[in-house]
TrEMBL record:
Biological classification of the source: Archaea, Methanobacteriati, Methanobacteriota, Stenosarchaea group, Methanomicrobia
Keywords: Methyltransferase, S-adenosyl-L-methionine, Transferase
InterPro entries in UniProt: COMT-like, COMT_C, COMT_dimerisation, SAM-dependent_MTases_sf, WH-like_DNA-bd_sf
Pfam families, per the entry: Dimerisation, Methyltransf_2
Region (Disordered): 103-136
Top-level taxon of the source organism: Archaea
Descriptive protein name: O-methyltransferase
GO biological process, one term: methylation
Stretches assigned to the O-methyltransferase dimerisation domain: 44-99
UniProt domain O-methyltransferase C-terminal: residue ranges: 217-327
Source organism (scientific name): Methanosarcina lacustris Z-7289
Key word S-adenosyl-L-methionine present: yes
GO molecular function terms noted in the UniProt entry: O-methyltransferase activity; protein dimerization activity
Amino acid sequence: MGNEVKGSTENKIENETETSVDLMQKPEVDAARFFKLVDSSVRGLRECRLIAAAFELGVFEALKVPLSAGVLAEKLGCDPVLMPHFCEALHSLGFLDRFEEGTHEEEEKAQMQEKSEGESEGRYEGKPSDHGVNPDHEVKNHGAVYLVSELSATYLLESSPFSQKHYLAERLRNVELWVRLPQIMKRGPEIVEKGPFFGEVVQCMAENARCGLLQETVKVVLENVDFTKVKKLLDLGGGHGLYAIAFAKLNENLQAFVFDLPPVTQKTKDFIEKYGASRVDIIPGDFFNDEIGSGYDVIFSSFNPGGKVPSLIPKISKALTPGGVFVTRQIPDENMKSSPLLSLDWNLWTFEDVKKGGSGYSFENSVPFSEYIEMLDSHGLEVFRVLDMNDGSRIVFAWKVA
């Protein structure tokens, strides 16, 4: 009996010692990296859903005039307890300005102004607080009023010429795609129809282009091509047609054409009408199967899905006049491969009748962009300028040998 008790006691002490050792043992891999990755990912998700919710609820449109969180909550039918925290979170990201002086007077004035003038876009002249808000601080600014910041007024108000509402909607659709990632990993990429897809995304691409990409690209092209001699231009896979419209505006003797899928060119018509571009026309079709026309002095192609497909090169060369210039802009493969997440994103969905390539923005019949450029020469297109742009893309200029 004594030996049994002694043995039991020794085992208990031994187990306690092992437990103590296990408890005090740290992982060999530093935990800081793991927690940083997870926490930054969750933070990004929170910020994304915050912006999406604010846009969906109409917060930015409502705050074209200064309102307190309480009045805003009542106006939008939201919870009055959550709204101050919601506004502070948007303020911390720079999407809202916060004013703490003359609150009640300004709020009453804003409400009267809204009734008499509609959704006024006048700016509040009070003193804004800093955006450097501690995210963990207690919200005590119940008397403060909020107003759209210059950032959100520029990019999130519908009335702004630089509104990114379609871009935001497209980004949110992409987020929903990632929400379904486990299911997609099991059943394979989601299938989408080309026409409807590009018809929807063309608005997003147009909004992006208006924020610097269009202006930069047109400037670079004009610096490398003598547009005084250009009479006929083709924007191949041109989507919204803003590039063709801009080129036509800069040369009164230029006739420009935008070639794209029929559902897309229906949207192109809207942009042509919006900007009064009478010398820009559309050519509906599928450039993989249909003729693209002829007699062009310039064929321009920017981020064209077929921009790395060799089978299109003979068609492009044939459509150019002798001495004509082919301008193409794409993301080089080496830049795409540096982002495995982007490549995964590209492969989460595909078109019904077109298979994609492994890397981002490539298709089954695509070749690396550098290889594509080397192929131009074999079809009478001589490269005379290659420029790397700030966004990671590359613009290549080639003229058709007479």
